Structures are given as C-alpha cells and as structure tokens.
Amino acid sequence: MQTNILICGVGGQGIVLTSKLIAATAMANHIPVMSAETIGMAQKGGSVFSFLRLGDDLHCPMFPEKTADILIGFEPAEAVRMLPYLKDGGSVVVNTHPIMPVTAALSGSDYTGQEMIGYLRRHVEHLVMTDGDAACKALGSPKVLNMVMLGLAIRQNVIPFSLEDIDKTMRATVKPQFAELNSQALRYEG
Amino acid sequence: MGNAAIARGAMAAGLNLVCGYPGTPSTEVLETAAKANDGSLYVEWSVNEKAALELGAGAAYCGARSMVTMKQVGLNVASDPLMSLAYIGVKGGMVILVADDPGPISSQTEQDTRSFAAYSKLPCFDPSSVQEAYDMIQDAFAYSEQYHTPVLFRPTTRVCHGYASITVRDEAECLKNKPEGFVKDASKWVIFPRLSYQAHINIEARNVELQHVFSQYTRNTLTPAVAAGCRKGIATHGISSTYTAEALKGKDAPKLLKIATPFPFPEDMAVEFLQGLDEVLCIEELDPVIERELTYLCGKHHLNVNIRGKLTHDVKNAGENTCASVAADIANFMGWDTAKPQETEAPPALPVRPPVLCAGCPHRASFYAVKQAMKGKKAVFCGDIGCYTLGNAMPLDMVDTCLCMGAGVNITQGIGRIEPDTTCFAFVGDSTFFASAITGAVNAVYNQANMTLVVLDNSTTAMTGHQPHPGTGRTMMGQVVDKVSIEAVLKGVGVKTVETVNPLDLKAAIDTVQRVAAEDGVKAIIFKSPCAVLIKPEKPPVIDADKCRQCKRCITQLGCPGIVLKDGKVAIEQALCAGCGLCAQVCPFEAISEGGKD
Predict the structure, then answer these.
(1) Could you tell me if B71 and A40 are in contact, meaning their C-beta atoms sit under 8 angstroms apart?
(2) Which residues in chain A have their CB less than 8 angstroms from residue B106's CB?
(3) Are residues B112 and B143 located together in one domain of the fold?
(4) Residue B108: CB atoms within 10 Å
(5) ipTM given for this complex
(6) pTM to 2 decimals?
C-alpha cells in the first residue's frame, strides 16, 4: 500500500513545514516515508513543490506523472502546473486565493486565478476548494494557511492518518505559543 | 535529509574535523554536523574551498578523520591542493564531499565529479539514496584510511535534498577516532618531483587493486535478469538507479548493474555483467562515465555487446533524469509498449515565477542607485555569484556578466582595457568578496585599472541560507569573534577611496556613486544594509489614494514583489512588504508614506 502526495504553491506559504509534518507523522506511525522538495531559489517567490511517498517498497522520493493520490495546491495556478502528476480519479484540495507573480505586475496583466479554478473544475473529479485568504483572516493570522490546507487534505481520507495524529506531531514541532492557533487552523471548516 | 544522513554517518565513523564552503546542494552536511556537535568535533566554514581542503588535509596528516564539503564548482577552486594531495596521501581517513547538481538546478555547470575522480585518480563513491549515503560515507572513511588516500564522495541534489526514514547505528556502535598527531617525515609530507614519480607508480598499482576490491564491494550490485534468456542489460548509478527500479517494478527486468564506485571502476563485476549480453543501456546523469567504461571493457575483453546511452543518443545528454524520462528510455530499449498520452485540454497560460530579489532586499536599492547614477552614461556592470545575480532580471537589468565566484572584479578590468571610455563596475557580495575577490582587487590596484568595486554587504551568506563568514563575527563553533573589515582590507591593499553608504538612503547612495565613479583608478563603494530575511520587517508603507496617479513607477522601476496591482491599482502586498521604504523614495508624487516613519 502506497500513498503519493504532492504539495505545491509559492515560496513562503509554509509548504516545507507541511511536508515535514506529514513525514514526521508517518514515522511516528511506523510507516516508511520518502520526500523531496524544491530548496533554495524557491524562497524568492518561485514555484515550490514537495513530493511525499508513504508505504512499503519505496525506491525514490519522486513519483511519475499520473500517480499522485492527492494534490494539495496552495495556489490555483501552481495546482494546475502540477496537475499532470494527479492519478485518474485522484483528489485535489486547492486554495482559491491567487498570488500574483512580479512578472504579472510588471506586464500589467491581471492574473486572478479564475481561469485556473475553471480548468481544475473541468478536469478534477474530487475537487475541494477553500478560500485560504478568508480562512487566515477568520483565524487572525496569515501564517496558518498551511495548517488550513493540511487539515482539509487530511479530511479527504486519502492520507492514512487522522487530524489527531497530525495535531500531535504539530505540537511537538512548532513553538508552543503557536500550537493552539495551528490546531484551530487544522480543524477550520470555513 | 540526505545531507543530514551524510553528516550523521560521518560522525558515526569517528569524524574529528569538518570544514567547507557553502554551496547548494551540499550546505546542510556541515550545518547538521555543527548542530549535532557535542564539542568533540571541530566545525568550520572556511573562507573558500581551497582553504577548506588544505585545512582538512592538515588534520588528516595528524591521523584525524576529516571531511571537506562543497558543491561541484567548489571542487574547481579546491582542485589545486587536491591534485597534489592525491600524490601525498593522508594518514587519517579524509572524505571530500562534493555535491553534484544535474539540471543544473542552482549551479553554473553540469560537471561530473565522477570524471574528476578519474582525472585526479582518486577513489569515488556515488550513493543512490539517503540510507545508502549514511552507510556509504562510513565505508568511504574506512577505504580512505586503509589506502592512505583522500576519497571523493559525490551525492547529487536528489540524494542530498531527499528525505527518508532510515536506520542508524546505535550510539555504542559509533566509532571514536583519537588522532595520533603529526609525525614529521619530510620524505612523506613534502612534495618533490622524485616523490611524485614514485607516488604515481604507487597510485596506478593501487587503482588496479581497487578495481578488484570494488568488484567485491557490496554496494556495487549485479542482479540477474528476471526472465531467463534475456540478452539485454541496464547499467546505472545514483538516483537514476532508483528511477530504474521504479520503472522495472512488476516487469520482466533485464540484467542490472548498479555502480557505486565509478572510479576505480569495478572491472571484474562489469565484465561478468557484460558476458552473455547483446545490448546494454546505460542510464546516467551528467557524464557518460559508465557507458565509456563499458565500451572500453568490450574492446579490452573482445566482447560483442552494443553499449548504448548518452553517446548513442538513447538517453538525453544534458539535464537531470526523472522517473518519467527513465521509464521512457527503458521502454524504448526493451521494446515495451508505452501508453500514448491522452489528448487533453491544454491548461491556461501559467504565470511564470522566476526567482526575484526578496521584498525589502537591499541589493535592489544598490542596483537602482548605480543605475540612476549612471543614467545616460556608457557603463558596464559585472556581476558575481550570490543572491545579487538576480539583479539581472527586469526591470533592474543590472548584471551584464556573471561567470564564477570572484570573476566579476577581473572581467571588468579586461573590459576596461579594451573599452577605456566605458565606466566599469564590479558587484560582489560580502561572502564572495572574502572567498575570492580580494586577489582581484590587488590585481586591479597594482596594474592601475580604472574601475569601481561595489561590495554588496548584507552581513551574511544569503543565497545558501545565511552562513557566517569572516565579516559576520560568528564561527561555527559558536564563538563571537572580531569581524574582518572589508573597508580595512580594501584600504590595506591600496584602494584609496572606499566609501560606505546605506543603499536604502537612495539620495545619498546615488550621490556617492556619482562622486566615487568619477574618480580615476580603483575605488570602492560598500553598500551596507542587512539581508531583509534576517531583520524584523518595518511597518509597510501606506499609499495615499488621492496623491497616487497610477503612474506605476514604483512597480516598473523596482520590480519588488511587495508592490502589486490589485484591480488595476497599485497596492502594497502586506504579507510580503518588508517596509524598506525604497518605493516611497522612488514615487514622484510623494504618494507613498514610509510606514514606520510617517
């Protein structure tokens, strides 16, 4: 039994921590895990992705196209960019709030993410959308987007652990003063 | 992380000293060792790779187990001492960790350290996974010590930056190494032509022996074909061997050879692999090292086997392999049907997200100040390696050349010799300045060049993740020490005008550039302002909607991720803005108030 998870978005959205929490939770549950992510240039506004694999008989952390069980998209265009990795019938959870790249601001183009959402609607059977910006405003911090997305992904029952499992790892990982807020974000349902 | 596993493995092998120079994808090896250091290990970010390699050699002369870390282009800097050290040898185990970067993802070249191993005649280890990296680095120390030679250990990016749950040794099983100390022996440690001649003979004999020894090494593997009678084989290495394993899952796999020691090549095992085969596909990243070796062995042993790979265009000869590319190459080779991609709707045009200087980055202000000061003048801007290479992007467009660490200061002198009417600038970061720009400054002063050296001093090595350097006053052993002053160094080598200015004070910065660049000879400007990632952001500025005429000058001049268009109007991206105030100084209508100081 293997689970392939792809997390993608833009540098600064907390994707690396999300990936680490899933990996650490797998290890706590004695499930072998491998992962690979973009490091370095991504900090500067670039596209960021993380490949995660859970289960037995793993050879490499990267997986081929059309094999992800779930894609967690922190940004609509980034979800579309990585969509070829989703297996037929796989699930996508996506933040509908777009991030405009500097290139778009310079050329004066008005990227809104709407055409990306439209494309996802047409091509993904199990699509769950959330307005991450609204969620962060409701929770009172722009830093909890990753926990909102992770909580939503866990509730799709594709990743083999519960919110409680993730919550436990999260509390062991983040600074104590952020634990409660993160915990609320994991359970946020808009 | 693979790099953490390498550090842990080296420590389990009794590591006494680790030093290096930061470079993606190698950096986290040394950082992990520093974090896990109980005080028994000496850890140092050296000024550059050459310094690090010489330091590591000195320790190994004493019988210490030492490791030197760098990226592949760093090996070029360290190659002078390394080529000679290969002849001198070591007493304690010495591993030179060189991380290769197929792609390249964050490097100037796609050079292959396996080829460097053959050139320098040094044994080379090539791990394929995080677990193997942990185990193999311990083997590397053992071989190094047994054969009294430094050895190369070359993971690639996907091993360095891959994560996996691994099994590690119990604390009690970890080795402890007590160095004997330096034993004087001029006939051993002092290189002379006569000694080198004898050493060359010994090295060639040792490498022949290692071809046999490595044929028995358990991490070089030979796996028979699943189906009897299959006369095809696949030879691979490193991360590509894991892509191969994925591609062959559930299939009738052909005979497989996995090479963990590309040099000396395990000849006996390779010949055994070739026997009974008609065709072999070599799946490699970077150079066709295995492919050349197998082709050579076919000639040497009169074997009629068709060796295919990069040289025969069956595998692409540049860039990194992927699960998909390897699966396709294998399917072609084996004559397997491949699923035709289904026709699907093309996705909408995706926004391009090239890396850009961070919001609030002082380099943006420095480049902008020089650009403004040189408006309408014939000027050339030689860049260098670091975050500030990103100053090449529009709208700044302020990096005309970039070659390798420290090159800009000399390239600008060469341009000035041929084009005396051009105002020549060289931009260099603080860490790169210490690593390899000081000799360039001496060269310029002594040879009477006419140029302006611009040091972008953000008080850290930002690109690789904020490592300390001689200008920061911190060491990896946790000491707080006297900083080496860039200004004092420049004055010391004879640069008469050295001015330091805060680039975020735009008017002062532009005035300084105009004044200093107008002088004859070699002069320097130090733009001093800390990396935006390391300081607490100021309050974002406020745009006065009544004053803003939507000229978008702040956007089109600066290209800062902190200013965006929202519904066609200029707006501050609150989550990204660092409150540096540069946009407020650029606005011609005083519509942007500096948040912290309104």
Answers:
(1) no
(2) 40-41
(3) yes
(4) 16
(5) 0.89
(6) 0.94
